[in-house]
Design goal:
The structure is a homodimer.
Chain A lengths: L4 H13 L10 H8 L3 H13 L3 E4 L5 E4 L8 H9 L28 H18 L3 H11 L2 H14 L2
Antiparallel strand pairs in A: 1-2
Helix pairs in contact in A: 1-3, 1-4, 2-3, 4-5
The structure holds a DNA duplex.
DNA sequence: ACAATAGGGATATTCTGTATCCGTAATTAG
DNA sequence: CTAATTACGGATACAGAATATCCCTATTGT
């Protein structure tokens, strides 16, 4: 069970977008170059963000993406679920119903106890992702990324942002 | 990102094995019939448990599986990791290193901040699974499963346990 | 008018999960 | 001793998902 690489891409892209000045947009092309990713395929990940309403887009030259809400409101969970889907990682096939000792047509009272444990763990995972915003990430990055690279990247991005 | 169905199978099988009297073994065939699963493929999941040292096996007629340790010591995480692997669900491709603004051969100080957040969530998931043992599950099941089915299943299993 | 953009559809490729089959070694029941 | 039963591992086949590319369309800024 491994998350798609698109999740990583989308997270890094949102990290960049969260640093954009108000009202500016950054294109797929720029984001792909900055991260060394295949432009066409990265585009699919960004479209997922768009469909989830996490980013706003404009067409034409100088078009691209910006965050649809403040970085303080955008969480890791938002992005992960936009790309990976919001379904549970554990799917209960209800195999207890195959027990030959059960009367036919017997109706289960509630969800399987095994599934409930797995779903609680799932919720713990989601809860951890929900606690971290891109404002938090921005602070962390600013504190630990080499200042020369940080400002160099910022300039690079601004030069390409419409 | 969905867990293999083998995880569900292995969990249910361990639930049954945890109810076996000391020293008795239950075969793949019995476990497959009880859960309505393909015997040959379920066998692969059980082999994973065996390789991880979670269960003990014997060959020959009346052979099969039993837990290698007490149900109070066997956790959900043990079983999930035995089947699914113990690797992280988020793999960091370190795409920050592709940043064209970085000097060539620049060496990163530590793990990527994005990855760290994802790994913390991963650990929250594992931590939740580590907290639940098969003794816990047994209590829950005994409390909520229809008593007639419960004892019927117990008899069914004992009749086939070597 | 032209160029650049997001978006979506179609397609190909690779990898993983699912499933089955068979051979081997070990062990027990008769 | 013989035959049946078991775990185990390897080989293979199949389906679906992830990865990746290509092309067409509509929109928008210069």
């Amino acid at each position: 069970m491994i998350l798609k690489s698109q999740v990583e891409w989308a997270l890094h892209c949102c990290a960049i977008l969260s640093g954009l000045p108000e009202g500016r947009y950054l294109s797929t092309k720029a984001l792909a170059e900055l991260h060394g990713l295949p432009k066409e395929y990265l585009s699919k990940a960004l479209q997922s963000l768009s469909q989830a309403g996490l980013v706003h887009t404009t067409l034409g030259p100088s078009g691209g993406y910006r965050l649809a809400k403040s970085a303080t409101e955008l969480t890791f969970l938002d992005v992960v679920e936009a790309v990976e889907g919001s379904g549970r990682t554990f799917v209960c096939q209800n195999i207890r119903a195959n027990n030959p000792c059960r009367p036919k047509g017997y109706c289960e009272s509630g969800p399987c106890a095994v599934a409930r444990v797995m779903w609680e763990a799932d919720e713990a995972w989601r809860s951890a992702l929900r606690k971290v915003t891109f404002a938090d990430l921005g602070k962390t990055l600013q504190a630990e990324v080499d200042p020369a690279i940080w400002s160099g990247t910022f300039d690079w991005v601004l030069k390409r942002a419409g």
